[in-house]
Amino acid sequence: MLYCADRTFYVGHTDDLDHRIAQHHNGEMGGYTSTRLPVKLVWCDEFPTRYEALQAEREIKGWGRAKKLALIRGDWPLISRLARNSKEKERASTGSARTD
Fold it and tell me: What is the rounded CA–CA span in Å between residue 86 and residue 80?
């Protein structure tokens, strides 16, 4: 996960982290980060397969700012609480929440 100059986050995956970060810094990637330089690596992890890395990328991209900040800090209890709150809000908005 990269922290961009405009205080937003960029989430992606790669097989060569150092090379990819250099591409972002040099503006070679185009797209999102090219207009938000400089960027700083704030979180990374390794996954057994590319598929699992892509799954994690997609999940994290859907997270709100507070949850991403908790991930950067390694605050797993907060991540868990935010996930529960998110699921409760989702159930309430779809009408499937219990009302008793």
Answer: 10
